[in-house]
Amino acid sequence: MLILMAREASAAQVQAVLETLAAAGVKAHLQENPEAPSILAPHASQAPKADRLEALEGVARVVPITSPFKLASADVTAARTVVPVGKARIGGEDLTLVGGPCGVESRDQLFTVARYVAEAGVPLLRAGAFKPRTSPYAFQGLGQEALDLLAQARAEFGLGIVTEATEVETFDAVEAVADLIQIGARNMQNFALLRRAGRSAKPVLLKRGPSATLEEWLFAAEYVMSEGNRQVVLCERGIRTFADHARNTFDVSVIPAAKAITHLPILADPSHAAGRRDLVAPLARAAVAAGADGLLVETHCQPHKALSDGPQALLPSDFLRMVEDVRRIHALLAEARPTYVWF
Ligand code: PEP
Ligand code: MN
Are 101 and 304 in contact (CB under 8 A)? Predict the structure, then answer.
């Protein structure tokens, strides 16, 4: 349920509602909206009845939340979530671009890529230190050594760091360095990992599982949010279908479909969707045209030598062209966006 407080409700009245819910054993989240505060109780079966809560001073109205996911639902807040990461504000006015190699391989490789990413005005650098690989024999990432290099790259180039946490055991180490903690597609329903991410003060990038429906994906976000971390960014990275011309099938429709039902921002990762570099830029352009808040794109200074995901890594020149193109599309859409008048 959503408890809407009156505009003039005092802090003591808000506190009294929170205490009433706590006494009934109901976990509640206070939302400081610009108009008036509201209190969200996602799991409200034990909560006092709406008429009892409405009788408390300062309460304007109690609204049931009919959506199956509660904290991520667009029904619970009029505002869209904006997640600040480094110099970027994901979900804000600007298109947020994240670029970098699949994995950190060496100081030289990471710094070479970070340099052209930063020079392109891209605010966030991606690169895995722990790599979730299909084969246990494939490159698994440099671990702590990679995290140290990422911290150095942030200091050197002023880039925010996006890197993946693959296990609860190594979460603390990733959390210490990352500005945005990625939960990978394979881990979208690793509930222990989601709960741990939910207790972090760092924002979380939640990739869609390769066979997850939109609802399942939002329930995964709900796991993070219900632990207290409301800074969640979704990321569509392609799903498993019968089509075999690409590594995955990029689901462009999920971008507007997600935006219709959740206030969380959404990025697109055309690299893991495509699996081949010639498809990455067209998918990137499509994602931006469909309303993505930004892109996560793999690029490598020497893709033929990459230890993971080389075939989908954009060459530096292709990366720069893609960045220019998607910025133009984003600017065009912002310009063309009409101001709606509702009657
Ligand atoms: C990655 O970002 O390098 C990655 C492994 O992505 P995904 O979880 O989408 O496969
Ligand atoms: Mn990759």
Answer: no
